[in-house]
Every structure is written in structure tokens, then in C-alpha cells.
């Protein structure tokens, strides 16, 4: 039975034992499509997150996808081009059920302006990576990533704890909305600025924000009091980051950690320039694109100058993957790239070992299935301190959104072990239904993105997109259930290429084979990518795993 969804009543949360499709594999993908809309930011417009990241091109395409998933057989493959189903082909029962390519523009034309034009004509859609491939699980999915970054900084700079530390950030949307909870879980006093009062209220209502301050002075006072008592606290503030960051700098206050997760990548559908409201931006989208882009860049320039001031004063400042430095450089901030990107600064050693955000979703809709898998993770990996600490924290503090789901940073071999053990639980009837596995795009083999994932690679291969293309082909050859290839849309046009994968554990031996090959080969290629780029850690990991590198 689907469950009511108070946030978006027209988009119930899927679940229950009844199948509408001809098998669990098809049903699983259908439920995941329903799920991304149920936890999305603006499902009436098919928008899931990242300003314009959509689950399907339009409502006709959505209806055709739903109909096809319901009626197709296991030996068929549904082909989706930028959110629109274009063919149902006869393949074989071990081939992917769905393959998709989203938003891939030919190099010369891979620019924001061309994307917006094609999107207006209805020819393309930005899949936002996990939106278009139906893998998004709400803000809960990004909490661990943000928490891990905070903890890496705590270890490197603050003696392992953020108690008494002030974190300043902005953006409370689909991804950014995780920041206040992740900051609080890391023990910090965190201030999160968002220009849209509705987004602030949404994160307050689910308890990610402890409180919303009426103005900047009150916000800084609350933060200061929490710091003095080493008390974790998350404070929201309605305001424009381009105004608030410089205002904090002007007061001489220096946070310990500064970042930003507004939709700075998209100057037409995302970032709100100083002096404008989200409604002003909506009005200007069609007629005033040029004006919006110029005003957005100028505002980002001011925000990033303040971030550089904080850095000069000793704060730990980083770009959290939203192109804010790129936009600032175009606005004339020549030293914007003095700010490091989070992947290079904190996460690359993990990627070298194939460790990254791996996620699983209980298709039954039952929270007890995730609780059982939490126990299993603790049983299987008692010595993995990061993962066991995270599972205990997440159980206590991360509320479920949509289909009950969990994400944890597991590595090569660990992921496969877990997936196979879960498949056994499904087979034995220990869970109420099958479980789908996927992983994020911030993962070793998944993404070429020279301003986020592959910045400053040791061998200079930052801009080479062969690796995600190879990954997608490897995943098809490894029998994954869904394989997706994406490039960037909106302001990300021309900036990235990425591969996504979903595999369903339905308890059958065939599922065990699919899980084993897909998950193992995905992390294998990730390790090989970093080994090939010259990272010793990755070469060692490849040797330990016995990976054959001709
Ligand atoms: P979103 O569009 O759902 O939310 C963006 C938020 O920023 C909105 O709430 C908006 O009101 C707010 N905002 C816009 N301009 C502002 C301004 N000037 N001042 C204050 N608030 C402002 O986007 P999202 O899904 O939360 O993603 C945020 C960014 O993070 C995107 O660029 C996205 O691509 C990027 N991202 C990073 C990672 C990562 O792992 N680091 C992962 C996914 C997405």
C-alpha cells in the first residue's frame, strides 16, 4: 500500500507487497521513479533537486515510462533519451531493463545557453544525475557526505571535534537542506542562510534546523552562545548569501568553516541575485536571462570575495561542488580557485580505495527492513569505524524521507558483500520486500567533472570523460538493472559526464549474479581510474583486490 505523503499529498510514497509490473525488477524501478517525486523539491513540475534536475522530460514522457515499466517483460530493455522513453527493444533477461542517456551535448555546443534553448523546445532535460535515474532519496542521501566532510576537517584542523566551532553555509534546497543536520551531528554551531522562506520552513519543520533567527545579529548571538557552551546547534536565516557573508565579514566575525550549497551552478533556474526574490527570478527566466546571469555572477563575486576574506583570516573554506568558484572567476574574482574543492581536499584518499556513498532503498516501504540491514552492516563490518559510527548516528538522528533508505561510505568488496547478504535476507523472507542498491555520482569510477570530482588529478587527466563512459559500458556488460549516462544541464552544461547504476536484490540467484558483477566491477573500475592517474593508494588497493591491470 502506498503511504500518505504530507509534504506532497499528490505524490504518495510507494510500498507494499502488490506488484503492478510483471516482475520485481520492473516494479522496483517504477517505485524508485515514484519515490524521487515523493521526496522531490517541486514534483508538480517533475523537478527533484538542483534547481532543474528532473525525473522525466514532461508529463507525457512520465506517463509513457510508467506504462512501459508496468507492461514490459524481463527480456526487454527500455531506452530513455533525456527523460523521454524512445524505444522498447527485445534484448535478453540478463540485459539492463532500462538504459538512459541524459543531457549529453556535443562538445562545441555544450553550453548553458544551448541547453536552455533545447530545454525550451522540449528536446532535452537535465537529469540532475540521481533525479533523472530515479535514485535520489531526499536530503537524507547527502547527509553522510556532508557529515564526512565536516569530520575530515575536524580531524585535520580541530583535534577531531567540531564542538565550539562555527560553520557558515548557505542553501537549504534538496541537497543543501542536509547541511544543518550534518553540522549538528558533527557537533558544530552551524548557520545556514537561504533566500527562500519556504525552504527554511521546510527544513525547520522536519527538525534539521533547531531554530530560525529573525535577523543576522540574533543569528550570530545564538551561534556565539552555542559555541561558548560547546553545544551543537543549527540556526536558519532567511537572507541572501551575497549580502549575509560580506555582512559577517564586515563585523569582523570569522567562522571556523565556510562553504556554500546554493544552486550557484545555475544562474537562470537556481541562484537568486542580491536584491531579488525567488519570484523575481521566475519572472525574468524567459525574457531577462542575460540580466539574471549578469546579476547572479556579480552577486556570487561578492559572496566569494567574502569567502576569500574568511580564508585569509584562517577559516577552512571549501567549494562544495556547485561551481561557485567558476562563476566567481567569470565575475572577475581572479583568485577564486585559491578555495579548494571538497573532493580533492578531503575525499580523494577514500576514492582511491573505492570507498564512496553507496545506498540502499527498502522497496517494501517498511522502516524495519532498513533497521535489519543496519544490524547487518554492524555485523559485517565491526572494524570499519567510519561506517559503524555513521550507522549508529543515522539510526538515532536521520529521519526517513520517502522510501526508507540508507547511505553509507563503503568500499570495494564491502559493497558486494553487503548486497549479497541482503539478497540472502530477501530470499529467506527476513525482509518484507526486495531492496534496490545504487550509488552516488561522487564515487571513484562514476564522474569526470574537472571542477568537482576530477580537479587537479595527479596526471592531469581531469577533463577526460572516457572513464564514466567505460563505467556505463562495464555496468551494462555486468547485467545491472538500470544504467544511466549523464552530462550536465543548465549551468553545468559542458562541465561533467557521469555514469549511474541501480541493481535490485529480489532474492533470486540471478539477482545475486547481477549484484556481484555490477557492484564489484563498478568499484574495480573506480580504483583503476585513480591507479591510472598515479595515486599510490589506489595502486595498492588494486593490488590488494587482485585487480588485473594489463
Ligand atoms: P536546490 O535548487 O534544491 O536548492 C538551492 C537553494 O539555494 C534554494 O533553497 C535557494 O532558495 C537557495 N539560494 C539560491 N540563491 C541563493 C542566495 N543567493 N542566497 C541564499 N540562498 C540561495 O539545489 P540543491 O539540490 O540543494 O543543490 C545545491 C547545489 O549543490 C547545486 O549546485 C548542486 O548541483 C550541488 N550539489 C552538490 C553535491 C555534492 O555532493 N557536493 C551533490 C549534489 C548537488
TrEMBL record:
Catalytic activity field: 4-imidazolone-5-propanoate = trans-urocanate + H2O
Entry annotated with the keyword Heme: no
Free-text cofactor note: Binds 1 NAD(+) per subunit.
Domain Urocanase C-terminal: 349-543
One GO term (biological process): L-histidine catabolic process to glutamate and formate
Pathway it works in: Amino-acid degradation; L-histidine degradation into L-glutamate; N-formimidoyl-L-glutamate from L-histidine: step 2/3
GO molecular function annotation: urocanate hydratase activity
Keywords: Cytoplasm, Histidine metabolism, Lyase, NAD
Pfam families xrefs: Urocanase (PF01175), Urocanase_C (PF17392), Urocanase_N (PF17391)
Binding positions (NAD(+)): 174-176, 194, 199, 240-241, 261-265, 271-272, 490
InterPro entries registered for this protein in UniProt: Urocanase (IPR055351), Urocanase-like (IPR023637), Urocanase_C (IPR035401), Urocanase_central_sf (IPR038364), Urocanase_N (IPR035400), Urocanase_Rossmann-like (IPR035085), Urocanase_sf (IPR036190)
Annotated GO CC locations: cytoplasm
EC numbers for this chain: 4.2.1.49
Sequence ranges assigned to domain Urocanase N-terminal in this UniProt record: 17-134
HAMAP family the record matches: HutU (MF_00577)
PANTHER family: UROCANATE HYDRATASE
Biological role stated in the UniProt entry: Catalyzes the conversion of urocanate to 4-imidazolone-5-propionate.
Protein name: Urocanate hydratase
Taxon lineage: Bacteria, Pseudomonadati, Pseudomonadota, Alphaproteobacteria, Hyphomicrobiales
Gene: hutU
Amino acid at each position: 500500500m502506498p503511504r500518505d505523503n504530507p509534504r506532497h499529498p499528490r505524490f504518495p510514497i510507494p510500498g507494499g507487497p502488490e506488484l503492478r509490473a510483471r516482475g520485481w525488477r520492473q516494479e522496483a524501478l517504477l517505485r524508485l521513479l515514484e519515490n524521487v517525486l515523493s521526496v522531490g523539491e517541486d514534483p508538480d513540475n517533475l523537478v527533484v533537486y538542483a534547481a532543474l534536475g528532473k525525473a522525466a522530460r514532461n508529463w507525457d514522457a512520465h506517463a509513457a515510462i510508467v506504462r512501459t515499466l508496468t507492461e514490459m517483460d524481463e527480456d526487454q530493455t527500455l531506452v530513455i533519451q533525456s527523460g523521454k522513453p524512445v524505444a522498447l527493444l527485445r534484448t535478453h533477461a540478463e540485459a539492463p531493463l532500462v538504459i538512459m542517456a541524459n543531457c549529453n551535448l556535443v562538445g562545441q555546443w555544450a553550453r548553458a545557453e544551448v541547453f536552455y534553448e533545447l530545454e525550451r523546445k522540449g528536446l532535452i532535460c537535465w537529469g540532475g544525475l540521481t533525479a533523472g535515474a530515479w535514485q535520489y532519496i531526499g536530503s537524507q542521501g547527502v547527509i553522510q557526505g556532508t557529515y564526512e566532510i565536516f569530520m575530515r576537517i575536524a580531524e585535520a584542523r580541530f583535534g577531531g571535534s567540531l564542538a565550539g566551532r562555527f560553520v557558515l553555509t548557505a542553501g537549504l534546497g534538496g541537497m543543501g537542506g542536509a547541511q544543518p543536520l550534518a553540522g549538528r551531528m558533527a557537533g558544530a554551531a552551524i548557520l545556514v542562510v537561504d533566500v527562500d522562506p519556504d525552504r527554511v520552513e521546510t527544513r525547520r519543520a522536519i527538525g534539521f534546523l533547531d531554530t530560525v533567527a529573525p535577523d543576522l545579529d540574533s543569528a550570530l548571538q545564538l551561534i556565539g552562545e552555542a559555541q561558548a557552551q560547546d553545544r551543537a546547534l543549527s540556526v536558519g536565516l532567511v537572507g541572501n548569501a551575497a549580502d549575509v557573508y560580506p555582512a559577517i565579514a564586515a563585523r569582523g566575525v570569522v567562522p571556523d568553516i565556510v562553504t556554500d550549497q546554493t544552486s550557484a551552478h545555475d544562474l537562470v533556474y537556481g541562484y537568486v541575485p542580491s536584491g531579488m526574490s525567488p519570484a523575481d527570478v521566475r519572472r525574468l527566466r524567459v525574457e531577462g536571462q542575460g540580466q539574471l546571469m549578469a546579476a547572479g555572477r556579480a552577486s556570487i563575486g561578492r559572496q566569494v570575495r567574502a569567502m576569500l576574506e574568511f580564508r585569509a583570516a584562517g577559516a577552512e573554506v571549501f567549494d562544495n561542488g556547485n561551481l561557485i568558484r567558476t562563476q566567481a572567476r567569470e565575475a572577475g574574482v581572479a583568485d577564486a580557485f585559491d578555495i579548494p574543492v571538497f573532493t580533492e581536499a578531503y575525499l580523494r584518499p577514500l576514492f582511491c580505495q573505492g570507498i564512496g556513498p553507496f545506498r540502499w532503498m527498502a522497496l517494501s516501504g517498511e522502516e524495519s527492513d532498513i533497521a535489519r540491514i543496519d544490524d547487518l552492516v554492524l555485523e559485517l563490518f565491526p572494524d570499519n569505524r567510519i561506517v559503524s559510527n555513521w550507522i549508529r548516528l543515522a539510526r538515532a538522528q536521520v529521519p526517513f524521507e520517502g522510501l526508507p533508505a540508507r547511505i553509507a561510505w563503503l568500499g570495494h568488496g564491502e559493497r558486494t558483500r553487503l548486497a549479497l547478504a541482503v539478497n540472502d535476507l530477501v530470499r529467506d523472507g527476513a525482509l518484507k520486500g526486495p531492496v534496490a542498491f545504487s550509488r552516488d555520482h561522487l564515487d571513484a569510477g562514476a564522474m569526470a567533472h574537472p571542477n568537482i570530482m576530477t580537479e587537479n588529478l595527479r596526471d592531469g587527466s581531469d577533463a577526460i570523460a572516457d572513464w564514466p563512459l567505460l563505467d556505463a559500458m562495464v555496468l551494462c556488460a555486468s547485467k545491472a538493472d538500470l544504467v544511466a549516462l549523464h552530462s550536465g544541464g543548465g549551468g553545468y552544461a559542458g562541465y561533467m559526464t557521469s555514469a549511474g547504476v541501480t541493481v535490485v536484490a529480489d532474492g533470486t540467484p540471478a539477482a545475486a549474479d547481477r549484484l556481484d558483477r555490477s557492484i564489484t566491477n563498478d568499484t574495480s573500475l573506480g580504483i583503476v581510474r585513480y591507479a591510472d592517474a598515479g595515486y599510490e593508494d589506489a595502486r595498492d588497493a588494486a593490488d590488494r583486490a587482485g585487480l588485473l591491470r594489463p
